[in-house]
TrEMBL record:
Cellular location(s): Cell membrane
Stated name of the protein: Quinol oxidase subunit 1
Protein's organism: Ureibacillus massiliensis 4400831 = CIP 108448 = CCUG 49529
Pfam families tied to this protein: COX1
Membrane topology: Multi-pass membrane protein
Membrane-crossing residue ranges in chain numbering: 15-37, 58-78, 98-125, 137-158, 185-205, 226-249, 269-294, 306-327, 339-364, 376-399, 419-436, 448-469, 489-514, 584-602
Catalytic activity: 4 Fe(II)-[cytochrome c] + O2 + 8 H(+)(in) = 4 Fe(III)-[cytochrome c] + 2 H2O + 4 H(+)(out); 2 a quinol + O2 = 2 a quinone + 2 H2O
GO molecular function: copper ion binding; cytochrome-c oxidase activity; heme binding; oxidoreductase activity, acting on diphenols and related substances as donors, oxygen as acceptor
Pathway connected to this protein: Energy metabolism; oxidative phosphorylation
Cofactor binding notes: Binds a copper B center.
Gene Ontology CC: one annotated term: respiratory chain complex
InterPro entries the UniProt entry points to: Cyt_c_oxase-like_su1_dom, Cyt_c_oxase-like_su1_sf, Cyt_C_Oxase_1, Cyt_c_Oxase_su1_BS, QoxB
CDD domains per the UniProt record, alphabetical: Ubiquinol_Oxidase_I (cd01662)
Length: 648
C-alpha cells in the first residue's frame, strides 16, 4: 500500500464528506468561540488542568453523552439498512465498519465513561473523602480515555474504520483480511483508553479502601460504593488481559509476529480466549455499578432502607467471581467438546442466581414502600421486568446444546441489548437525572423526563423484541442484507421504527437538559430528593473540598440517620484542608498519547519514537517534581460555607 493511500477516505460518499465538513466547522466554531469570548485561560485553569474529581466526572459524563449519539448514529444506519429486503443504503464493507464501530463506541467509549462519571462524582462524597487517592492519576486516566476515544472516532474519515466486528476475531483482523489501517485504530485506540481504565481501577480501589470517613467500615458503605469497589477489582484483574492481547495483536499487524495467525505457530483462538476472558467480566464492570445506582434510587424513592444489605453485597461478590468462569460459553459451537461445554453451561446458569437475589431484594424494598414515581424511579422500576426477560434469554443461551440454534443469530443480538440497555443505559439515565441537581444546581424537568422514559421504553421493546423472533427463524447477525423470500422484512421494519423512537427519546433527554438549564429554579437546596446517603449531606454546588468537616459515620445511611434520628454527622471545629494543585501534565500526556497512537497506526516511526520519548519525559519530570499541594485556610472555608448556606 502506498504511503498516502493509507490516509484515503474509505467511502467517498456524500455522508462521509458531510461528516468531514461538520467536524471541520464545529472545530473552527469552538476555536473562534473560545477566542472571541476570551475563554482560553478559563478552559485551561478550570478544566484542562483540573484534578478535582467532580470536574473530571462531569467531563466523563459529557464525553459519554457525545459517544452515545456517535454510536447511536451507527445503530440507526444499521437498522435503516435492514428495515427492508435487499436495501442499498450501505454496501457490505460500509455495514461491516458500522457494526464494528457501533459495538466498540457503545461499550468502550460510552458505557465505560458513563460509569466512571458516576464513580468520580459520587464515590468520594459517599465515603466522606475530599478527593480520590491519586488526583493527578485520575486526571491522566480521563485524558487517556479521551485520547483513545478521539483517535478511534477519526478513523471513518482518515484511513477507514475497523471492519472485523467489535470482537475483532483473528484471522479476520489480520493483515490478510483487514488490509486497511482500520484494525490498527481498533488495537491502539482501545489500548490507550484501556490503560486509563486500569489506572481508574487502581485509583478507585485505593480511594475506597484507604479514604473512608471515620466509622465507615466496609459493611457500612453505601451500595453504590460497594458496587464501584467490586467493579474496580474486576477492572484490575481483567484489563491487563486485554492490554496484553491488544499488544500482541498490534505486533502481529505492524511487525509480523505470529501470535494469532493461522500459520507459523500462531493460534487464532488464543485471541478469542483472551478477548472473552476480559470481555465477559467487562459486562459486569458495566452492570454492577448500574445495580448500585438502582439500589440507591429504589431505596430513596421507596422511602425505605435497602432490603437485604448483606445479601446484596454477597451477591455482587459472587457475581464478580463467576464472571471470570463463564467466558467459554462464547465458544459452545466451536468444537471444544461436551465436557467443557457442560462445565461452562453450568457456571453461566449459576451466575443468574445471585442476580436473581438482587431482583428480589429490590422488589422487597419496594414492598410496602411509599413509592414516588419520579423519572429516576421510572427507569429503575422499568428496568426490573425488562432486564429479567434479558436474563431469562441468557439462561436459554447458556444451554450449550440449544446454543447451536441461537448462536450467531439476531436472537443473540436481542438478548445482549435486552440486558445492556435496561441494565446499563436505563441506569445511567436514572443516575443522570438523580444526581444532576447535586452537581449542576437545578433539577431536570420531570414532565419532559417522563416523555423521554416512555419513548425510550416503547422504542426499546419495538426495536429488539422482534429480533428474538427473526433470530429463531434463522436471521443471522452481521449480515448486511436479506432477500424478501426470508420473510424477515416486516419485523425488521418494526425494529427500525423502534430504533427511530429511541433516537427521538435521546433527543428528548438532551432537549430536557437545555430546557431545564433555561427554565428550572436554582433554589433547590442540597437535598431535593430527600435522599439517604452521604453525598447529599454537603452543599449544592459541592465545594472544592466536599466537606468542611469530615463526617462521622455510624451506619450505611448516615445522612438519613442525621435527618430522622438526630445523629450528629459533623463534629469538631473547622480546620485547614489540604488539597492537590492542578496540573497540565495529564492533559499534555494525553495529547502525546494521541500523537503516538496515530503514528503507530500509520507506521510513522519517527513521530512515534519522538512521542514515546515525550511520554517518558513527562513521567520523569513528575518523578522529580516537588509538589506538596496547598492548604485552604479556615477563613476561606468559613467564607465559602457562609455563601453556600451555613457551615456543616
Amino acid at each position: 500500500m502506498e504511503f498516502f493511500e493509507r490516509f484515503a477516505i474509505p467511502h467517498p460518499s456524500p455522508a462521509i464528506y458531510a461528516s468531514m465538513v461538520a467536524i471541520g466547522l464545529v472545530s473552527i466554531g469552538i476555536l473562534v468561540g473560545l477566542t472571541y469570548f476570551k475563554k482560553w485561560g478559563y478552559l485551561w485553569r478550570e478544566w484542562l488542568t483540573t484534578v478535582d474529581h467532580k470536574k473530571i466526572g462531569i467531563m466523563y459524563l459529557f464525553s459519554a453523552i457525545l459517544m452515545l449519539f456517535r454510536g447511536g448514529a451507527d445503530a440507526i444506519m444499521m437498522r435503516a439498512q435492514l428495515s427492508t429486503p435487499d436495501a442499498k443504503l450501505l454496501d457490505a464493507q460500509h455495514y461491516n465498519e458500522i457494526f464494528t464501530t457501533h459495538g466498540v463506541v457503545m461499550i468502550i467509549f460510552m458505557a465505560m465513561p458513563f460509569i466512571f462519571a458516576f464513580m468520580n462524582l459520587v464515590v468520594p462524597l459517599q465515603i466522606g473523602a475530599r478527593d480520590v487517592a491519586f488526583p493527578r492519576l485520575n486526571a491522566l486516566s480521563f485524558w487517556l480515555f479521551f485520547a483513545g476515544a478521539m483517535l478511534f472516532n477519526i478513523s471513518f474519515v482518515i484511513g477507514g474504520s475497523p471492519d472485523a466486528g467489535w470482537t475483532s476475531y483473528f484471522p479476520l483482523a489480520g493483515n490478510d483480511f483487514s488490509e486497511s489501517v482500520g484494525t490498527n485504530y481498533y488495537m491502539i485506540a482501545i489500548q490507550i483508553s484501556g490503560i486509563g481504565s486500569l489506572m481508574t481501577g487502581i485509583n478507585m480501589m485505593t480511594t475506597i479502601l484507604k479514604m473512608r470517613a471515620p466509622g465507615m467500615t466496609l459493611m457500612k458503605m453505601p451500595m453504590f460504593t460497594w458496587s464501584a469497589f467490586i467493579a474496580n477489582i474486576i477492572i484490575v484483574f481483567a484489563f491487563p488481559v486485554l492490554t496484553v492481547a491488544l499488544l500482541m495483536g498490534t505486533t502481529d499487524r505492524l511487525f509480523g509476529t505470529n501470535f494469532f495467525t493461522t500459520t507459523n505457530g500462531g493460534m487464532d483462538m488464543l485471541w478469542a480466549n483472551f478477548f472473552w476472558i476480559w470481555g465477559h467480566p467487562e459486562v459486569y464492570i458495566l452492570i454492577l455499578p448500574a445495580f448500585g445506582l438502582y439500589s440507591e434510587i429504589i431505596s430513596t424513592f421507596s422511602g425505605r432502607n435497602l432490603y437485604g444489605y448483606k445479601s446484596m453485597v454477597a451477591s455482587m461478590v459472587l457475581i464478580s467471581l463467576l464472571s471470570f468462569l463463564v467466558w467459554t460459553h462464547h465458544f459452545f459451537t466451536m468444537g471444544q467438546g461436551a465436557l467443557t461445554n457442560s462445565i461452562f453451561s453450568i457456571t453461566t446458569m449459576a451466575i443468574a442466581v445471585p442476580t436473581g437475589v438482587k431482583i428480589f431484594n429490590w422488589l422487597f424494598t419496594l414492598w410496602k414502600g411509599k413509592i414516588r414515581f419520579t423519572v429516576p424511579m421510572l427507569y429503575s422500576v422499568g428496568f426490573i421486568p425488562l432486564f429479567t426477560i434479558g436474563g431469562v434469554t441468557g439462561v436459554m443461551l447458556a444451554m450449550s446444546a440449544a446454543d447451536y440454534q441461537y448462536h450467531n443469530t439476531m436472537f443473540l443480538v436481542a438478548h445482549f441489548h435486552n440486558t445492556i440497555i435496561p441494565g446499563v443505559v436505563f441506569a445511567m439515565l436514572a443516575g443522570l437525572t438523580y444526581y444532576w441537581p447535586k452537581f449542576f444546581g437545578f433539577m431536570l424537568n420531570e414532565r419532559i423526563g417522563k416523555w423521554g422514559f416512555w419513548l425510550l421504553t416503547v422504542g426499546f421493546v419495538l426495536a429488539f423484541f422482534p429480533m428474538y423472533i427473526t433470530g429463531l427463524d434463522g436471521q443471522a447477525r452481521r449480515m448486511y442484507t436479506y432477500s424478501e423470500a426470508t420473510g424477515f422484512g416486516p419485523l425488521n421494519l418494526v425494529a427500525f421504527f423502534g430504533a427511530a423512537l429511541m433516537a427521538i427519546a435521546f433527543l428528548t433527554i438532551v432537549y430536557n437538559i437545555y430546557y431545564s438549564f433555561k427554565n428550572s429554579p436554582r433554589n433547590i437546596g442540597s437535598d431535593p430528593w430527600d435522599a439517604r446517603s452521604l453525598e447529599w449531606a454537603t452543599h449544592t454546588p459541592v465545594p472544592e473540598y466536599n466537606f468542611a468537616r469530615v463526617p462521622q459515620v455510624a451506619s450505611s445511611e448516615a445522612f438519613w440517620d442525621m435527618k430522622k434520628k438526630g445523629h450528629q454527622l459533623f463534629k469538631g471545629d473547622i480546620e485547614k484542608i489540604h488539597m492537590p494543585n492542578n496540573s497540565g501534565v495529564p492533559f499534555i500526556m494525553g495529547m502525546i498519547f494521541f500523537i503516538a497512537g496515530f503514528s503507530f497506526i500509520f507506521a510513522l516511526w519517527i513521530p512515534a519514537v519522538i512521542s514515546l520519548i515525550g511520554i517518558f519525559v513527562c513521567m520523569a519530570l513528575r518523578s522529580f517534581e516537588k509538589d506538596h499541594g496547598r492548604y485552604i485556610s479556615v477563613e476561606e472555608i468559613e467564607e465559602t460555607e457562609s455563601k453556600l448556606g451555613g457551615a456543616k
